[in-house]
Write a sequence for this structure.
DNA sequence: TATTATTTACCACTTTTAGTTGTAATTGTC
DNA sequence: GACAATTACAACTAAAAGTGGTAAATAATA
């Protein structure tokens, strides 16, 4: 994810909409020379700036972002950005609990249940601290 | 698209994966104080940095980006922004559950517990399906 | 409970870089 | 050719990234 590439995308998008560096610049509130640096990859672009640019060019921010192997954007259970319905429900009801002790207890209960899996019932193993989630689509 | 919000997302994601500020910091090659600034919204985060962070946390970059009003999946804006440590923990362990049936059962259990409160123990009432929570900030 | 170690928060300071201005080179159009 | 845009690339300034030190919480252990 390098600056040069993003800069290129910006430049292309800008030309597509028929804006000059100058026009875009004053829309996002910087000098046009600065826009130049964005496009050529000299300056690093912050998220908020990119957001402004995307808005000025009528494009989604995600249009400039690319995860490696962009296939997993929709799936990804191991990513909180998209909470599943189950998880939302869980959270919702957990939140409704007014008694702090109950919440606390419930949490440890869930922890306990979660800690159960992967443990072989036969052999007595040392408690594994935190398990790495397995069977998950790795992002990197 | 403000820094504070993105910072929150990062913090939550970090805790979900069980990393300390320090660990994350050395993974992306900055001081942990700097990570702090990212999370609290003091420092602006560049795209490349966000990319590094996302990678370190095994998440797609797009998980931290949100186009306006297209606030991914979950309806309520600022939903994750306000996840407490407890809730993060809860979610984390709930996610670790591989068995679908178990998750399902656990969810109904939590629902049941949540449904308990507000019920008068004295009178034997007909099972009220789902109770409406009172005086609570609605989630959905 | 006291104690120690870990994690996190806040402080003043340094260094990097975003962002500016100025000027020159390009690319039109008349 | 001249004139007006758009773009490029310098040198400089202002601002924010990034660092280190220290204190305050927050586990973890005896």
């Amino acid at each position: 994810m390098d600056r040069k590439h993003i800069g290129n995308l910006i430049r292309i998008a800008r030309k597509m909409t028929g804006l000059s560096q100058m026009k875009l610049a004053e829309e996002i509130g910087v000098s046009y020379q600065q826009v130049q640096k964005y496009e050529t990859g000299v300056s690093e672009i912050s998220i908020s700036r990119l957001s402004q640019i995307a808005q000025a060019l009528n494009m989604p921010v995600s249009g400039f972002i690319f995860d490696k192997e962009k296939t997993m954007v929709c799936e990804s259970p191991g990513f909180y950005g998209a909470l599943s319905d189950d998880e939302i429900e869980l959270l919702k009801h957990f939140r409704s609990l007014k008694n702090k002790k109950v919440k606390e207890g419930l949490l440890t209960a869930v922890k306990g249940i979660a800690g159960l899996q992967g443990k072989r019932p036969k052999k007595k193993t040392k408690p594994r601290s935190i398990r790495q989630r397995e069977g998950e689509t790795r992002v990197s």
